[in-house]
Amino acid sequence: MRKDVYLKTVPWREAQGLFLDTVLGPGRRARTKAEVIATAEAVGRVTAAPAFAVVSWPHYHAAAMDGVAVSSRDTAGASETNPGRLDRDQYDPVDTGDPLPPGRDAVIMSEELHPLPDGRLEVIAAVPPWDNVRPVGEDVVAGEIVVPAGHRLRPADVGALLAAGVVTVAVRRRPRVGIIPTGDELVPVGEAVAPGQIPEFNSVILAGMLAEWGAVPAVYPPVPDDPGAVRDAMVRAAAECDLVLTIGGSSAGSGDYTARAMAECGEVLVHGVNTRPGKPVVLGLIYGDRRPQHGAAAREDRTVVVRGTRAPVPAVGIPGYPVSAVLATELFVRPLVLTLQGLSSPAAEVLRGRLTRRLASAAGVEEFVRVRVGRVGDEWVVAPLSRGAGLTTSLVRADGWLVVPAGVEGFAEGQEVEVQLLRSRAEIEGCLLVTGSHDPALDVLGSLLGERHPGLGLSSANVGSLAGLVALGSGECHAAGCHLLDAETGEYNAPYVRRLLAGRRVVLFPLHFRQQGIMVAPGNPKGIRGIEDLARPDVSFVNRQRGSGTRVLLDWLLGQKGISPRQVNGYAREMFTHAQVAVAVESGTADAGLGVLSAAKALGLDFIPVAEEQYDLAFLPGTLEDHRVRALLEVARSGEFARALEEMGGYRPATGDAREVGP
Amino acid sequence: MRKDVYLKTVPWREAQGLFLDTVLGPGRRARTKAEVIATAEAVGRVTAAPAFAVVSWPHYHAAAMDGVAVSSRDTAGASETNPGRLDRDQYDPVDTGDPLPPGRDAVIMSEELHPLPDGRLEVIAAVPPWDNVRPVGEDVVAGEIVVPAGHRLRPADVGALLAAGVVTVAVRRRPRVGIIPTGDELVPVGEAVAPGQIPEFNSVILAGMLAEWGAVPAVYPPVPDDPGAVRDAMVRAAAECDLVLTIGGSSAGSGDYTARAMAECGEVLVHGVNTRPGKPVVLGLIYGDRRPQHGAAAREDRTVVVRGTRAPVPAVGIPGYPVSAVLATELFVRPLVLTLQGLSSPAAEVLRGRLTRRLASAAGVEEFVRVRVGRVGDEWVVAPLSRGAGLTTSLVRADGWLVVPAGVEGFAEGQEVEVQLLRSRAEIEGCLLVTGSHDPALDVLGSLLGERHPGLGLSSANVGSLAGLVALGSGECHAAGCHLLDAETGEYNAPYVRRLLAGRRVVLFPLHFRQQGIMVAPGNPKGIRGIEDLARPDVSFVNRQRGSGTRVLLDWLLGQKGISPRQVNGYAREMFTHAQVAVAVESGTADAGLGVLSAAKALGLDFIPVAEEQYDLAFLPGTLEDHRVRALLEVARSGEFARALEEMGGYRPATGDAREVGP
């Protein structure tokens, strides 16, 4: 069953270059046609030609002040010692913006007037011509260029155009981009999904990205996995759009028809690029019913959009995994859509930071790894996120992409790396990195923080309590969440801090007390009543990862009952969050797991309480002066957070003071 | 007639603080109400609450590869040397995304399958449970927070929400902002304007800015300068909006009614702030018919938007000069509109650069000066633009604001200053600064450059040929435009370079030859035939500024005819551009001026040719390797530019090589 998945995997820059050169022609100068629209509605549009002033602005000599309009000649020679006098017919009161009456060429400000009882004015200084006057064309003169071609109009640009009498403006037509979701498994968003079915949400992501780049997305109904249907949909969309995207079916498996369909109604330029994720991309052209002769002449004719409907239309087969889809759209669709409007594709902002852990990557592939970034102390730290191409939440959490070039097999822990930012530096700076024990209450805390202090946020990484303390010690996060029971003293957290971060002072801030318990299926079919039942041969268990506080608690509880881990069926099966443990129980792959009540409640599981534990946030003392940390601690002690904990169930708000631990 | 213009001019930060505290309440925590909308339409909106996953994603155990689904137990112990065999009922073919059939817990990839002729499969390695499977909840588990509150939804966030079954989402209502233009002088955009009338374009600028910040602008019909009409319009808008802006009439002159109207239907908190431009701002509240009791209790009640229609509505009187209007809206409206949505007001990006010339500023006023910024060599240079509050084109050309604090009387030439950017660094980096002689063809050249090379542009400063060469020498621009005739040799430009930039090597690139001539009113009513007529007592002239090539040319032409400048009536009246000279002639304030044909043509003037001159762009040699300069020179030699010159009239394209001048 082994087969050649791709004819050829092309370096993505080469693929991008071939695609853009083919579609945009020599010098990549193809643009969408111009259209003339009302200037007042042109904010965000790109000028197709320079816009020349139709009238001068101001279009008349205007008073620049409230006062009186005079003829400067009538004031010649006037001074403090030898004041002049203006008769009633030698001046006219004017307000700012009024036109200068005929024969007047200057304005004296109200504040500097000396009226005489007989209605005349005394003038104590000669007034230069055009003083306090905005002459015709001071801002712009008819015939001058107000904005150049290729300029994205901002609100103030539109104002300047309207001031200059430019009431319509030639702009580039927004490229119309057809989006065709493909796949038998797709159901419309909001409908019930059976196993094997998925809601069709990729088109919403792509349409949103395209709209941000100035294109007009047109989402077509999903097409089943049938080569003829995919081809027909492509041809139909090509007749109506400047660019056609399909989603899914772009790989080379038995149910993947994008490349085949594109070859049937056009031409495949590239199938497969050397990126991870995003490898299964198809780049090509759709000819519709007008398949041209091959050869040099036909190639010339490929320049697409500027030639109108008779020309071939560019097409991209986007992979179906969401992260792959986003990356492929960034790499191959964005530059095309921007260039068609005469815009550049500005490079992403780049930031250099220290990698928190080793990152391995296969050679020969350019890997795009989503990362979280945080400013800890004086340093930027870069933490890789999970790399699955289907992880939509990694796109939500990502602050940037870390690119591992094809010739590099990865980066070492602590190495300085370059990140292409997906958020602004300011947004990233507002975010606190909390590493350590997973707790659903942390997400709630972060949400309240952002709601109460716009611009601040909390990003948590679930590595377990022990690894969190280690990360805190090496400056990789602002705080570590931990709930580590010391078997000898019964004390929480402080003994571990002394052991793991010997010589460092750490502040432990009590966040809450929480109920841990055994999660079981609704109705507790196996009749589990406590820790001792986990040793039963008919009970399967799902565990948390080594180093997590919950695992430490389990080991302590088992020890109390004299049970060996080897007696627990499934002790080796590790999950990284309470929620993942809950879902394993809910989906029937385990009978029991240890975790917090809120996770059990969320999935409707039964819960057998076994212990209440103390959850602390650990900080290095210097951090407590950080305004973000102060805001976080204020929210953590707020009534709102206490109420939120109560609603979640299984929590008791902490009220105690922070404890300092260490030398 | 002297009067107190403002009761009190408040430092703007204090005014902003008072306004925001009053409107948003203690801690500035007031937000617009939440509304529930379809998630698919929520891109750009701000979450009003954390959004919890409704279903887990994936919602079933899914094959992560094309291959066969197996039970891992059936592969236990298999190895290369001791392969296992799977019967036909021990495996099921699956494609990526298919649900795992009951009893299966792992997938073997197609590439690793060894089918036997009898339909069985050979397995050469034990498969761990959950290998090549995306388990339920791998991405997100029902009940987990997908996005926190106060989060501006990006396309990928919306995708993650839809994957998690979140089909509706609670977002902050967009604040509705009423905009009331005021003034008898306003006419609708596109209608004919008489002297004293102006098109009402400020509301378009403000509406565009508000939309960018997430608000919904509602533009009301213009209101005449009548205190009752302004008050009625305020009350009506307050009943329908979360915030009311008036434009114009915010000063304290005889025709300014904003403050009075606001006091009549509400309360004025601030009238006048210490900024330039933007001083005449009114900040206050509109009570409508519900003027509350004054005192502490009433003050509590002011927290506005969250309380619904019964509460007072904040109002801002925006000044009518466009630059003032933009600044006041940035300072007082933006933070309110963003905070009401739960968003932060990120500080503008800041850049440090060297000021090209001395900048004086009055003490006691915080001045916001528009500046152009450019990267010349390794340095950022900052060039102040004209400061008039009515100059809409200065908003088009500005790259940023340079703020001169109230306690500072200005900055010295060459001083390092901080600029708050209005464009991205990338946009600014793409822009070439050309300083020196004004020529309309430069704008055309810049427009072609941007059209052909998206991201590149040209920004010209009209300081005259001589000042341009000096600026080039001191590294303040990329190129200097010049057309300087040496009286002794008859040679253009090179002798001046030798004189002004002694010891520097300069490259002179011939841009074009252009016709200079005398511009006169249509029909040439004064019968002017040549330079000698400028000495006639009945002819008034308008000149260009000292140091401009056109002035040098005039002086040479006058010298040829033996005419003294003192004989020319109006020799001292200086304009900075050809267009301004043309408009002086067109508006009848001068009978004649010297300039290029294109400027005369634009205003329909008659033109008497007197000389053809050579216009060069001067560069320092190192600059010629700059990719932006190379692109510029390529466009300057293109057929498109030659055609554009021909269309403008009075130009001849240059074809000669660049000349190197200097030691």
Write up this protein:
Two copies of one chain form a homodimer. Residues 1-5 and 292-309 of chain A have low confidence and may be disordered. Helix content of chain A is 25%, strand content 27%. The radius of gyration of chain A is 34 Å and the shape is flat. In chain A, strands 29, 30, 31, 32, 33, 34, 35, 36, 37 and 38 form a ten-stranded mixed β-sheet that branches. A six-stranded mixed β-sheet of chain A has the order 16-13-17-21-20-18, sandwiched between helices. With 663 residues, chain A is of the alpha/beta class. In chain A, a hairpin with a 2-residue loop joins β24 (366-376) and β25. The first copy, chain A, has five domains: 5-28 and 175-340, MoaB/Mog-like domain (Molybdenum Cofactor Biosythetic Enzyme, Chain A); 34-57 and 139-172, Alpha-Beta Complex (Molybdopterin biosynthesis moea protein, domain 2), CATH 3.90.105; 62-134, Molybdopterin biosynthesis moeA protein, domain 3; 362-429, Beta Barrel (Beta-clip), CATH 2.40.340.10; 462-661, D-Maltodextrin-Binding Protein, domain 2 (3-Layer(aba) Sandwich). Chain A contains 17 helices and 38 strands. Chains A and B meet through β11, α2, β15, α3 and α7 of A and β11, α2, β15, α3 and α7 of B.
Helix and strand arrangement:
The structure is a homodimer of 663-residue chains.
Chain A: H1 12-24, E1 34-38, E2 51-52, E3 62-63, E4 67-70, E5 84-86, E6 91-94, E7 106-109, E8 114-115, E9 121-123, E10 133-134, E11 145-147, H2 155-163, E12 168-172, E13 176-181, E14 186-187, E15 198-199, H3 202-212, E16 216-219, H4 227-240, E17 243-247, H5 258-265, E18 266-271, E19 275-276, E20 282-286, H6 296-300, E21 313-318, H7 322-340, E22 350-355, E23 359-360, E24 366-376, E25 379-384, H8 392-397, E26 400-404, E27 410-411, E28 416-421, H9 425-429, E29 431-436, H10 440-452, E30 457-462, H11 465-473, E31 479-482, H12 494-500, E32 506-520, E33 541-544, H13 549-561, E34 574-575, H14 578-586, E35 592-596, H15 597-602, E36 606-619, H16 627-636, H17 639-648, E37 651-653, E38 659-661
Parallel strand pairs in A: 13-16, 13-17, 14-15, 17-21, 19-24, 22-25, 29-30, 29-31, 33-34, 33-35
Antiparallel strand pairs in A: 1-12, 2-11, 3-10, 4-6, 4-7, 5-9, 8-9, 18-20, 20-21, 22-28, 23-27, 24-25, 24-26, 26-28, 31-36, 32-35, 32-36, 32-37, 32-38
